[in-house]
Design a protein that fits this description.
With 456 residues, the protein is an alpha+beta fold. Helices cover 33% and strands 16% of the residues. It is built from 14 helices and 17 strands. It has a 6-stranded mixed beta sheet with strand order 6-2-1-7-17-16, covered by helices on one side. Strand 4 (91-92) and strand 5 (97-100) form a beta hairpin. The longest helix is centred in the last third of the chain and has 22 residues, at 430-451. Bound molecules: flavin-adenine dinucleotide. The site of flavin-adenine dinucleotide has 38 residues, from helix 1, strand 8, strand 15 and helix 12.
Length: 456
Amino acid sequence: MKTENPFDLTVLGGGLAGSEAAWQAASRGLKVRLFEMRPEKTTGAHKTGHLAELVCSNSLGSALPDRATGLLKEELKRMNSLLARAAEKTSLPAGNALAVDRDLFAQEVETTLENHSNIHIIREEALAIPQDGPVIVATGPLTSERLSADIRAHTGEENLFFFDAIAPIITLDSINFEIAYRASRYGRGTSEEGDYINCPFTKDEYYAFVEALRGAERIELQGFESGIEQGVSAGKDSFFEGCLPVEVLAGRDPNALAFGPMRPVGLIDPRSGKRPFAVLQLRQDNLAGDLYNLVGFQTNLLYKEQERILRLIPGLENAQFVRFGQMHRNTYISAPGLINRDLQLISRPEVFFAGQLSGVEGYMGNIGTGLAAGMNAAALIRNEPLFEFPAETMLGSLLNYIAHAEQKHFQPMKANFGILPPLENPPRTKQDRAKEYARRSLERLDEALAGRGNTN
Ligand SMILES: Cc1cc2nc3c(=O)[nH]c(=O)nc-3n(C[C@H](O)[C@H](O)[C@H](O)COP(=O)(O)OP(=O)(O)OC[C@H]3O[C@@H](n4cnc5c(N)ncnc54)[C@H](O)[C@@H]3O)c2cc1C
């Protein structure tokens, strides 16, 4: 006998997008069941069973309102985003970045959802998109194999699999402060002594380090995945550029790291009074302040090689690793033509996609699509018009992009000013243009929210 589903909405995946989506729908009075497969079944990258666990960096992007992710965060806050609020509540000193204590952030979100009377959390793997009633699919870049197969059956498209990399974490007390020094780039930090720990390289030290990286043994990748390492076009374009493994960057060009994650600008060594040739930065990873991650140092080297080579970094001779870098699968649908800007599957509009799976990249963008899917699903269920996210907002532009980008070369998109409609009278400097984009976005959003009465 078929039992009736007592819930208004099903959300698959309790990550960034799914947690936000569940919260948005539940706060509009809907009964929501949220499926999360962890801790029973893991993804390979997540370390805990917590909802909304950050898998790699603990930074949610810029905290400045006139930067793309900072603007997106401000938009989300104005739309009552649970995760944007949790991020601010659990933030750590990190210069202009919004970095959080990853455990406190996840706990904050999880506790709020667990205590919500409209949300029922089911710790089980979803094997298929349910047939009964509206559903939001937000199982992320590491969606389980069985659900991936069902998604493929629904979308009629082959999911794309490729790889992404995460950075190692070390203990504070293993850093040699005879060499390493605290500083924020150009002194623009929140703490007086500097938010980052910096490991300075001389020219010789830098090139010796790059040589070691280039010659180091990597974890072997299989079949088509190995194309990524060789930098073939599909793989190369498929990486989040900000998450390229350091050995891949070093392999492309010996100077790439000095101009990329190890750029020394604005980081004068207080002992020499000079700018080092290159700098590795370490960013606080937990509230206790005893763990630091290697900024921009995603890697897929063998663990023993990471230990050997990263200890060549000046100041890290005795580094103790609590997590090594790794590479992981990434899954997303080819969104344009499959979903509309309301995140609905065109062939089955009661199915919404959100998060990385929908073709959006970056923590804040994934929270944003979760918010949009939660709001839209609630409106659909309540027979109300869906909220039209203004095209001038960062979230509205991301939604437009994934729905309308060219399908043939579609790649996941992160928040950036380039996807916003052009300004009517663009100011001359980049900084002023960014400010104007931000001002216009928030003005349009406030108008749209006021027109709707409120967001709830
Ligand atoms: C290794 C890695 C590193 C990344 N690093 C960064 C970074 O540093 N900065 C950044 O901005 N972005 C990063 N990203 C991209 C992206 O922002 C994050 O993955 C983000 O967490 C995606 O949000 P999401 O909600 O779509 O997925 P997730 O946060 O991964 O949430 C999906 C949830 O669904 C669950 N799940 C999966 N399948 C099922 C199933 N069948 N049934 C039930 N539950 C299921 C998972 O356990 C997970 O909890 C990274 C991605 C990967 C893979």
